[in-house]
Specification:
518 residues, mainly alpha, two-stranded antiparallel sheet, globular
């Protein structure tokens, strides 16, 4: 009830048919239904895995503590790739745990063992494509280290504390960074919501001068809240869910750098591998806090819920003004990214992808703007291209695909097809885009074979549009190119272009059968 819904109209129901929350995959459903691609749900059928019905406890395997140099490399990889976004661990404590685990393991608490094993699992997963890893012999997979960590987690969650919140956040980060994320039926969302509830119960979202836990614990509590905030709002934006906590209820200070955060002078921690962290510390985290506020404002304005036969809480003029303000905020946010993060780093392009996705969601069809204006469609198209170009850069520089991009690739791909369908006069732009995104999707399939059905979905829809352009005897595309500058005329032309292109889908049943049989 908190996030607006999208509806589609048809000949039988002039009021429209409800198709669900307005963000995420429901945009894809709206677009495909516009083009009468209902039979595409046949792509969802797949053979059951041989172990789906098997007792997971029988097949689950665990990993012991790896050799020290592997652990150290994994920890440093975690700092470079994850800690810069989610500084929920104190680095000196992590360093101490790593040392004591190999010198006096009996002195390490269950919580610290959990932390080290899950950090190792995340770090090794992120390092899978690193050339340096070829020098290490490691017979265990990242998921096996996670399994070991999870055994400790069962022992420490019974007590609600900052440590249990920290542990839950690490589990969410693991889910967002590794291959265990599948169709979780909302489990990730519920885990994020529970973490925010625990954060509120611990009071880490509030600033009270009478609470003095000591400098470092005060800072840790602040960081735990903001990491919870980033994760919960990221998931809410991805799945189109309501917010657990409004910004008006937050007054805890943002994270600050302490002397213990500077580790470049500590050669025992392997500073030769901390090149990324040395340059940015957790500036990316502070930038994520800012864009997650924009996420929340987008969900509460442009994607605001609107019940049937009732007026929305905001007028169309107010929503239009909010949309303009949000776009300006996103533009300013990207300016800050350009200033603070070197464009030679992987994290720069990860942040740029965040910007592109937020702008796409703001400008594509939404409850407030079911038919976007020409300017919004063109902006969407540019953002989709920039997003895919950023993924290409990262893959060219050794980045490993992670599950957080799977949902984004589908939606960016379909949004780009939608934009080309509405505005282009030929297939050239879509052809160039399709080649790039299919290269990325082929890389995805190497790690996540079940993504094949989504790659096939993109191939089907993009091929139909491209074939339609190439054989378009009506020459009806190019709504934008033929615009005389009047917005109403431009919208009429865009809508007409969509209608004229309906013939593009006449061969869909045959193509669907080909995909199904393959």
């Amino acid at each position: 009830t908190e996030v607006g819904s999208l509806t589609i109209s048809n000949n039988d129901n002039t009021q429209g048919k409800y198709i669900g929350a307005a963000t995420g995959s429901n945009f894809a459903r709206l677009f495909l239904k516009q083009m009468h691609l209902g039979r595409l749900n046949e792509l969802n059928s797949s053979a059951m895995d041989d172990f789906d019905s098997f007792d997971s406890s029988v097949t689950k395997s665990y990993a012991p503590l790896p050799p020290y140099r592997i652990s150290k490399y994994a920890v440093l990889k975690y700092i470079n790739c994850v800690h810069i976004y989610y500084p929920l661990l104190l680095l000196q404590n992590l360093k101490h745990t790593l040392h004591v685990m190999y010198s006096s393991p009996k002195e390490v608490s269950l919580h610290d063992k959990f932390v080290l094993f899950i950090v190792i699992s995340i770090g090794l997963d992120r390092a899978e494509k690193d050339v340096e890893m070829t020098n290490y012999i490691n017979q265990f997979k990242p998921v096996e280290y996670f399994n070991t960590a999870y055994r400790y987690l069962e022992e420490i969650l019974s007590i609600r504390s900052e440590k249990s919140l920290q542990s839950l956040l690490l589990v969410i980060i693991w889910l967002l960074n590794t291959n265990v994320l599948r169709d979780d039926n909302g489990d990730l969302w519920h885990l994020g919501r529970f973490s925010m509830s625990l954060a509120m119960e611990l009071g880490v979202h509030r600033f009270n001068p009478d609470w003095d836990f000591g400098e470092m614990k005060n800072e840790l509590r602040n960081r735990l809240f903001w990491c919870t905030y980033i994760l919960e709002r990221t998931i809410a934006m991805k799945f189109g869910r309501g917010l657990s906590l409004r910004k008006q209820a937050i007054d805890t200070p943002i994270p600050q750098l302490f002397k213990d955060d500077y580790i470049s002078d500590n050669t025992n921690f392997g500073t030769d591998l901390l090149n990324v962290y040395d340059q940015v510390q957790f500036k990316p985290s502070l930038l994520l806090i800012n864009i997650c506020e924009i996420y929340g404002d987008t969900l509460e304005t442009v994607y605001i819920s609107r019940a049937a036969h009732s007026e929305p809480a905001l007028s169309l003029e107010e929503i239009s003004n909010y949309k303009t303000q949000l776009q300006n905020s996103l533009t300013q946010w990207m300016v800050q990214v350009d200033k603070q993060i070197p464009n030679t780093l992987e994290c720069y392009y990860e942040l740029k992808i965040r910007y592109c996705l937020a702008s796409v969601i703001l400008n594509r069809p939404s409850p407030s703007f079911p038919i976007p204006d020409t300017e919004s469609i063109l902006r969407c198209k540019t953002d989709c291209q920039e997003c895919i170009s950023s993924y290409c850069w990262m893959l060219d520089h050794g980045w490993k695909i992670n599950p957080t991009c799977l949902h984004d690739l589908v939606n960016v791909g379909l949004t780009m097809i939608y934009c080309c369908w509405k505005t282009e006069t030929d297939s050239n732009t879509l052809k160039d885009f399709s080649l790039k995104i299919l290269n990325i999707m082929n890389e995805v399939v190497k790690y996540y074979p079940t993504f094949t059905k989504f790659k096939n979905l993109f191939i089907i829809v993009s091929s139909i549009i491209i074939d339609g352009f190439n054989n378009n005897v009506n020459n009806s595309g190019g709504a934008v190119g033929n615009s005389n500058g009047d917005d109403s005329d431009s919208m009429t032309e865009v809508q007409q272009a969509g209608g004229h292109n309906e013939f593009m889908f006449q061969h869909l049943p045959h193509q669907l059968q080909q995909v199904k049989s393959s």
